[in-house]
Structure formats: structure tokens, C-alpha cells
Design a protein that fits this description.
The protein is α+β, with helices and mostly antiparallel strands. The protein has helices at residues 31-42, 71-82, 158-165, 216-220, 222-237; strands at 2-6, 10-15, 52-53, 62-68, 87-94, 102-112, 117-121, 129-140, 145-151, 189-197, 204-208. Strands 1, 2, 3, 4, 5, 6, 7, 8, 9, 10 and 11 form an eleven-stranded mixed β-sheet that branches. The chain is globular. The chain starts with a strand and ends with a helix.
């Protein structure tokens, strides 16, 4: 387990593709239990360890996941996510280049538990929830394209569905329209960065998940990602 940030109230880890954040019907060990064991061992804590799930990532997605180490932090972080006070930035690799280099995408999303899929509609429907994100084209090669995505709402499979709907499914995402899977079963979508005010101290938390060291495609885009991070750092300093 790779810890990106930790203090008395929160712990932020770099989730590997294939891990589940919370327990599900597969019975596989969830990341929240791995974090609990890590805290218990590091601090030699007797008995049960508190670790609250603040948000989730789809199983084939890697990157930043925030957990709460106290009930106070959990309640406040849940409210911050609900109110959209957490800035969430993702990176996606697609096979197709979008028509526009920057765009805000909106719509209405319906999730169907039976098929474990979500469906997008341009107009309101019964049970559908509004969704919005904006993307920016960052870099490209002969075969693949890198997009930076700022998520405004956090619905199930939202990024995957919205990118697919504009003709740019995430690489490896067979469920939403890509033609071939990735060898490790992941999809080329990462929770790259979170930025928010600490739920207790109020200080600014701004963390980024490193790209997978063993993935040649992500590493090929690493110079573009490093440049992006430098630009973001300079913009916040200004």
C-alpha cells in the first residue's frame, strides 16, 4: 500500500487498479481493511481501528483515495464531497481524439444495478441524476490521447460514460465501448489529484498520485503530466 499523505484525521493512499475500496459480493479484501491493518501495525493499536470510507473509485481505476481516521473527519469529509468542496482531477487515456480540445459535458445518468452499468441521457428522465465534468486535451501520440478531467459530480461510472458518449471511450474499458482490454484488466483512467481544505485544521490539502511505474503507456505521457503539474502549481501561486 502506498501512502501519499497522513495525519491524525485523514489518510490518502494511491489505489492500485483491481483493488476494491469497500467490500462487495466478490469477497475480496477491500482497500479499507488493508488501510486499517496498516494503521494498526504502524501505531501498535489494540482492538479495532477506525477507518471511514469517504469516496470510492471503480475497481479497474487507480489513483487517489481519501479515508478518514476519525468520525469527526468522516462526517465533515462526507459533507464536503456532497457539497462539491473537493476538487477532483482525473487523467484518461483514450484511443480517439476529441473534436474539441476543451469542453464541459453535461447530461443525466441512470445506473442499473442488475447490469452494473450507467446510461447517459441528454434530457431529464425518471431516476436519472444530473452530471457534469470538463476536460482538456493535454497530449497525444500516433495511437493514444491524454485528457485532464475535472469532475463536478461524482456519479457511478460517470467519466467512463460521458467520454464514451462523445466517441472517446477510455482505453481498455470494454464495458463502455473500447475494443480491447488492457493486459492487467485495468482501464486507463486515474484519479490524479484531490484538493480541499482539511476537515479539522482547515489547511489546504493538495495531493497527486504518482503514475504507475510499471506501465509504459502512462510513463510515455509522464513528461506531459509533469508539465501540467508545473502549470497548476504556478497558477495557484499566482
Amino acid at each position: 500500500m502506498e501512502v501519499i499523505y497522513e495525519d491524525n484525521h485523514i489518510i490518502i493512499v494511491n489505489k492500485a487498479p483491481g483493488e476494491i475500496v469497500q467490500g462487495d459480493k466478490t469477497g475480496d479484501t477491500p482497500l479499507v481493511d488493508i488501510v486499517k491493518d496498516w494503521i494498526k501495525e504502524k501505531y501498535s493499536k489494540p482492538g479495532n481501528v477506525f477507518c471511514g470510507v469517504v469516496h470510492r473509485l471503480d475497481r479497474p481505476v487507480g489513483g487517489v483515495v481519501v479515508f478518514a481516521k476519525t468520525s469527526k473527519a468522516l462526517a465533515r469529509m462526507n459533507e464536503m464531497f456532497r457539497l462539491g468542496k473537493v476538487e477532483k482531477t482525473y487523467l484518461a487515456i483514450t484511443r480517439n481524439r476529441p473534436v474539441k480540445d476543451t469542453q464541459r459535458l453535461t447530461g443525466y445518468l441512470t445506473s442499473v444495478e442488475r447490469t452494473n452499468k450507467s446510461y447517459l441521457s441528454p434530457t431529464p428522465r425518471d431516476g436519472a441524476k444530473p452530471v457534469a465534468l470538463s476536460y482538456r486535451y493535454i497530449a497525444g501520440s500516433d495511437r493514444y490521447h491524454l485528457l485532464e478531467i475535472h469532475l463536478e459530480t461524482g456519479r457511478k461510472h460517470q467519466i467512463r460514460v460521458q467520454l464514451s458518449a462523445m466517441g472517446c471511450p477510455v482505453k481498455g474499458d470494454l464495458k463502455y465501448g473500447d475494443k480491447r482490454s488492457n493486459p492487467d484488466g485495468s482501464i486507463s483512467l486515474r484519479a490524479h489529484r484531490v484538493r480541499f481544505e482539511h476537515p479539522v485544521s482547515g489547511k489546504l490539502i493538495d495531493v497527486t498520485a504518482p503514475l504507475p511505474a510499471g506501465d509504459s503507456l502512462w510513463q510515455a505521457f509522464s513528461p506531459a503530466v509533469a508539465k501540467l503539474q508545473d502549470e497548476e502549481r504556478e497558477s495557484h501561486e499566482d
